[in-house]
Amino acid sequence: MKRQLTIALVVASPLFADAAPQSFTLDPTHTYANFAVEHWGLSMLHGRFDKNSGKFSFDRAAKTGSVEVTTATASISTGDNVKGDRPQSRDEHLRAADFFNVAEFPTMSFKSTKVSFAGDLPASVQGNLTLLGVTKPITLSFERFKCGTNPFSKKDRCGGNAVGKFRRSDFGMKAALPAVGDEIALNIEFEGDRD
Amino acid sequence: MHALLDDPMVQSAVAPFLVALIVGAALQRTRLAWFAIAAAFATAVGLATGIGFTPMSASRKLLLLVLLAPFVGLVLDRLPTPQRGIVPELGALCGAASIWVFWSVLSQREMAQMLPQAAGVAVFVGLMVALTLRLRHDGAAGGAATVALGLAVGVAALLSASIGNFANGLAIAAGGGALLLLQFVLNRGLAPGVIGMLTTGLAAALFAAATFMLAQLPWYAMALLLPVPLAAGLKLAARHSRRVRMAAATLISLAASTAPIFAAWLAARAATS
To answer: Closest Cα of chain A to B120: distance in Å?
Structure first.
């Protein structure tokens, strides 16, 4: 009986491994917080934050998970960082006190409160976005969430992208409204290796 | 109307000027006319970003202090004269308050950088407040200093990558311009009192310090703002009419304001070359 139980446990152990929470560390060279905002009602300005770090985890069996991301606000880039004859470039202005005020608030962060699943993969994550010292709830939906193997480290690797929207005025960022839109569309592309 | 109020020049100059003119004209028979400076600034902030105090960032602490300044001045103006000790004490208090304003930024810096910056900003703010308070009995000099300081701080901020403090400086200049115009038209001085000059000195000093701490204003451009109230206080011979003295004080102050603007321009030019 004891021997049969041992064999059963060994056979079932891969299933238990998948049932355990899986924890991943974000790969900073393959994780980008992209954003888009309307300009003068004419076009969408696209930009991104280049420096992001954090962790995510999920448990397929328990249908739970967590996400924590910290972004360096000074890493913002919209492709305009040479001021020429202007007082400042657009990227410099975005780092200034009018917008992201990076001298006072060097980071912004997202911390999840709940992860919802579709099947055995995360479908959306609810959490709190902290920007300019203000914390507000936000929901991000996973458009893609896939897992595979890192061909170099041979570790399990997951990645995808999560999208969501928020109003910058909710966080006290009201400069240049309405010429620069209030609604910010987020698209966070991410990858991470299993810990 | 909505589109007009969204125009940055309307928000930072035209509307503050009109509000200051109305407030100054309505209160010109009282000691409260110089509340117009704080009213001009509040108008600019209210139109641009709205007035709020959470979270209490450096910009919001600055806003709070500038809006409180005339009320502190109201109390101090009622003190029996002479108020000899008031100038250095208020200067020191404002210098200390500037540390509180910028603490969230200072505390992130290494000690070797934090201490001299904190000391420098505190001394600058204290001196600016003390120098502007010397003009509290002279409406022409007070108005001239307010216009020149507002313009100097605003243009220097624009050149130093701070659109917000450009707008703030313009609003103060617009308020000072409205009170100068009122005095010119009425041919009567409106003494600023501590109400007016504490607001002007504290606002100009904190806007400049904010541009230094949070943007790219070099420290020497900030220091070159200090002669502006000194220039405004130069006495012309009493034989000249009030209007002539008012115009002269304004021109002399504006001339002094070119030095910090030039310094900021040189620094901005060096940064691009």
So the answer is: 18
